[in-house]
Fold:
Amino acid sequence: SAVISQKPSRDICQRGTSLTIQCQVDSQVTMMFWYRQQPGQSLTLIATANQGSEATYESGFVIDKFPISRPNLTFSTLTVSNMSPEDSSIYLCSVELSYEQYFGPGTRLTVT
Amino acid sequence: AQSVTQLDSQVPVFEEAPVELRCNYSSSVSVYLFWYVQYPNQGLQLLLKYLSGSTLVESINGFEAEFNKSQTSFHLRKPSVHISDTAEYFCAVRPMGGATNKLIFGTGTLLAVQP
Structure:
């Protein structure tokens, strides 16, 4: 299994600002994933982050809005840029080990 | 492409009653199947998975799910629920092979256990 931590656990931000979310894993992994869970809804994949290459974004998500860094095999960041109230969600990172995905506790973001 | 359907957005049930949470999927390729649970104000936890072998898989807390390939279903069952089972349950699939490891989630089913 994998133990994943995220910072911050929650934040309240003003419209137009940016927030960077950190994800730390206790083992080295090739791929890390970033998901969004909007209030009362399911999880949607934002992007897949491989160490040493550009992140791959899903349809509807763009790098200018959600830039991702992956400096090493245990760490990644997701930035939510120029936030609006529609960005209020839980953001989760995950990793896959032996076909199982493990999730971090999530970052609960509220944009006012 | 893959999709996952959880027809029941909410399932109310009395404590000690049996429950079934339905999950159907659509995929042009073979998939791995998963059930995740999200307790109130907590993160997502893997409940059980089907990768290969026996089509009936079990969790440590009494849940089981059966993979039915012909009906493309992976329903979750428990013979007797507890108050502590109250949570959101998500069914998910992941394509076998290919270039992507991403999970495709259903919309979730809220299991509300009442005393």
Observations:
- Residues 18 and 81 of chain A are 4 Å apart (CA to CA).
